[in-house]
Amino acid sequence: AKLCVCDLLVAQCDVNCCCDPDCSAADFSLFTTCSIPLVTGDSRLCSQKAAIYSLDVEANPPERIFKLIDQVNPSVFCIHATNYKQAFSFSSPEMPTSENFDQLLEQFGSASFSAEPDSWNMNTDAQNPSDANETYRYEYGVPIQTVDAFLRLPSPVVSSWCSDANPAGFLVNQATKCIRSVSVEKCGNIQAVSMLFYINSSILAVPKSSQMVNITVQSIVVQSLNGMRTLLNGSDVLRLPVILDELCINIVLGVSYHITYTDAGEIIEAAASFVLGAINKEALSIQQSFEISFTQVNTKPVPLSGNPGYVVGLPIRAGFRPQGYPFHIRILFAALVLNTNKYSQLTILQSTSNQDCLAAQGARTPILFGYNMISGCKLRITAAMTCQPLTQTLLDLLKGQNFPEYVASFGNSQAQHVLDWVPITHLHTSEQRIYNTFQSSCQIPVSLEIEVKWTKYGSLVNPQARIVNVTATITTTTLKQLPSGRERTIPITSSVVFTDISSPAEPGYKAWPTINAKLPFDFFFPF
């Protein structure tokens, strides 16, 4: 368990972490892959045990498969026995400071010195067994350590006044506001209103390590006394509080930390954004705001629609699969107008007051899980219209130029997990109605019907909504020529229907609970 690098949550199951000892069989049944399929110790050993994890997706429900094998290192340069654990890694040399300079000078200042440690203790394992194979990493909720203590995120404790004793927890997004006592005469001596107070202490990349990550200044926004805010062009200048014309400027009103981490629980970047303001002599206190957020390296924040199953009322996630994978994730909507949707997301037509299809360019509504929807507009056809441009215009209006290819089966499906994505099936039907409009018959699309089939998946106690099939059906009708000067109006519609295809509970079991039950806020957090 100590070697399981994907085990980040304390006493909770991490999604797709097959080596997490906190996961149960019910949790494994919801997994789609094993993020860490092989767990071993040091790869330089000549022989060691290796744990292999996989999923049996053919089983019902899916099961985790665990095997323990003897792994042999084929290299002739391998370690047969580990009798001195400290020799596995190189310790960074101690940096000279004003406090330790004399000590370092006495130790290394002569013409020669010994590079060996003071003692070669062959019984290190017996003396300190807990640290022998310790793999240090941050876990969920663990305070983020700095060189002097921990990363501070001031917050109100008993009253609304700020307390600087609140540590920021790893992977815990927080936002706080509190009141700070200030005065113009003493503003230069109050540490908590200075930028330096929030960036002068480097963060430890992992707990109990000598590797440090400096906090960089990402942006600085200056707020005037009347509340107007201005973004400064340069953020590399440290702006300290200073008294100017009976005002104290560069007072910290807000700090926003952004932490970048790896899947092994290591912090690699830390940035801070500041809001600076000014106070006059009448000000006795200020309100400060603080927040912290986390992003995993090489990933882009994508809004989830459930964790893991879909939540009623949240958008369906969809995307495209380029050459190979991963997917380009989008939010699924039902029809698209390209010049009104800069994200190329599908949207369903939203009815407007004039009901004119060719004029309805703006109003779009997302497809929300569990919500059956129908909308439409009216198309006025004249004898001067030609078939091909009209057909393409209606197809773009109904289906969109960037209709997605796949839909996420779960609300938290990741782009790299191919089996978590369901392909959209396209169908075409034709109506028997014939409108006398064109001289030769012309087939135009008049409706788009999207059917989303979903099922309750996993444990009977806490089933998760999973999409298993999506069908998009375009219905066309035939038009014939209208007499000159005549016109005709036909309806254009879009609709979305959700169908629950869950099998009924077996006799003797409780019936399925309703899907409206909300999951805990930290269920499988942060994935």
From TrEMBL:
It holds the Pfam family TCTN_DUF1619. Residues 137-297, 306-500 form the Tectonic-1-3 domain. GO terms for cellular component: MKS complex. Part of the tectonic-like complex (also named B9 complex). Keywords: Cilium biogenesis/degradation, Glycoprotein, Signal. The gene is Tctn1. Belongs to the tectonic family. Residues 2-101 form the Tectonic-1-3 N-terminal domain. One of its GO terms (biological process) is cilium assembly. This is TECT1 protein. It comes from Ciconia maguari. It comes from the Eukaryota.
